[in-house]
Prior knowledge:
Structural class: alpha/beta
Strand content: 25-35%
Distance between the termini: 10 Å
Helix content: 25-40%
CATH architecture of the largest domain: Alpha-Beta Complex
Order of helices and strands: EEEHEEEEHHEHEHEHEHEHEHEHE
CATH class of the largest domain: Alpha Beta
CATH superfamily of the largest domain: Medium-chain alcohol dehydrogenases, catalytic domain
Shape: globular
Number of strands: 15
Largest sheet: 7 strands, mixed
Bound molecules: zinc ion
Radius of gyration: 20 Å
Amino acid sequence: MKKTIYYGIRDIRVEEVPDTAPGPGEVKVKIKYCGICGSDLHEYLHGPFPESPFGHEACGNIVAVGLGAEGYKIGDRVCTLMAGAYAEAIVCPTERLLKIPDNMDWKRAAVLEPLSGAAYAIERGHVTPADTVFIAGAGTVGLMLLLGLKAMGVQTIYMTDVLENRRKMAEALGATLVWNPAEIKSPAKIKELTKGRGVDVAIEAVGIEATLKDCLASARYQGMVIVQGIFTERAAVHMLGFVTRETTMIGTNFINPALAMKWLETGTIRPESIITDIIPLADIASKGFEVLAGKSKTAIKILVEP
Length: 306
Ligand SMILES: [Zn+2]
């Protein structure tokens, strides 16, 4: 079968690898889609993480079941929440599987994993429906946060992004107000919008100093800053405001697939609308990673279809 092998920075190759059968407690899944995640793009551009997540946003049909893989059968539709899925198939332990309801569209299932990151962050940050929220960044992370917040009933969500297509997407998906942080200073804008108070929760969804500063300066007294962006550089932040405003700041880097699935099954949100491109496995570098690396004016979520 064909699988994408990571060789190094900007060097991934689709190669023929031996087919493997599922062992005890495992199933083999034929991949329908695997989404390209921002964390994978970081690995592509900057080098691998210690526990590489490369290719972890996949869904497909079970084609073989190992011994003791209780509750799963051939043909079942599942999300495989583990790395290594930029491939025609993946062998996955059952504890990493999540069943997809029969009537759920594949594209909707394909964004379950990024939505679960938002679900985890929102829960970990104890966000409530009454909170006013600012999300810095309208890439996949920010947009999934927006939809998660909407699913739980948050009414006021401000967002920023420097890219116009992402701002438009945020507006289309129901953000209260969206602006370009390169043109409008976010902390001042937030002050104006909240009558000087600041937002209850500010979420960093980019992974750079400028947006972290915007979040810290936009949260109210005793407010919450949630950091979900992946940082490759150090960030110099002004700690005096952090201390005097008694800010709580947390990092989040995990998923809550059960909550995300609940939103997908019961809610009206349409996270699949962030999918802008579906590309063949053979083109994963040229039409996938290189497009995202070039800060594409159109691409947001790209799915690989092996
Ligand atoms: Zn991901």
